[in-house]
Write a structure and sequence with these properties.
By secondary structure, the protein is mainly α. It contains nine helices and two strands, in the order αααβααβαααα.
């Protein structure tokens, strides 16, 4: 029997220990036990995933799915789950099944917090756009044709020249 790496705990052996007992191979059983670490901290039940946080460890151990989002931000997750069409097409039972399989957030909103959304809903359209930086200054010169812009500039220059003359 040849082992590629040093054994630390019984998880690395797999079923070899059980097979040695079952087939009455005392030499292999003794060799496997002798190669295990004598330090109790190296036993499998004391090996933890240090790179995974405790809540994720518990989720993995008990096979618990990720928690349902209560508030989803459509600016961060543009592909939010919407089970409304399932309810409209197939009824309540199919909706409950779909909700259990792929739950949707209870509240879907943009990047603004709740208090700001309430304030912006009470504002007029222009103020709302200024607050979310969607307002673009509109100048009438952009809508003018090139010849109209030239004639306007000539009139402005004439007015300025008459003022300083």
């Amino acid at each position: 029997m040849q082992i590629e790496s040093t054994l630390v705990n019984e998880l690395q052996i797999g079923n070899r220990l059980n097979a040695a007992i079952e087939h009455n191979r005392r030499g292999e059983f003794g060799l496997l036990l002798a190669m295990l670490s004598v330090d109790a901290r190296d036993m499998a039940q004391f090996q933890f995933d240090n790179d995974v946080e405790i809540t994720q460890k518990l989720r993995n151990k008990f096979s618990v799915p990720q928690p349902q989002l209560l508030v989803d931000d459509i600016s961060v997750h543009p592909d939010t789950t919407d089970n409304a069409t399932v309810f409209q097409q197939h009824g309540a039972k199919q909706f409950h099944l779909q909700q259990a399989l792929t739950p949707e957030a209870l509240v879907i909103r943009g990047s603004q917090p709740d208090s700001m959304i309430e304030v912006l809903n009470n504002c007029d359209y222009l103020t709302k756009n200024k607050a979310i930086n969607a307002y673009q200054q509109h100048t009438p010169l952009e809508d003018m044709n090139f010849l109209d812009q030239l004639s306007t500039q000539r009139k402005i220059s004439e007015t300025i020249s008459h003022q300083f003359a």
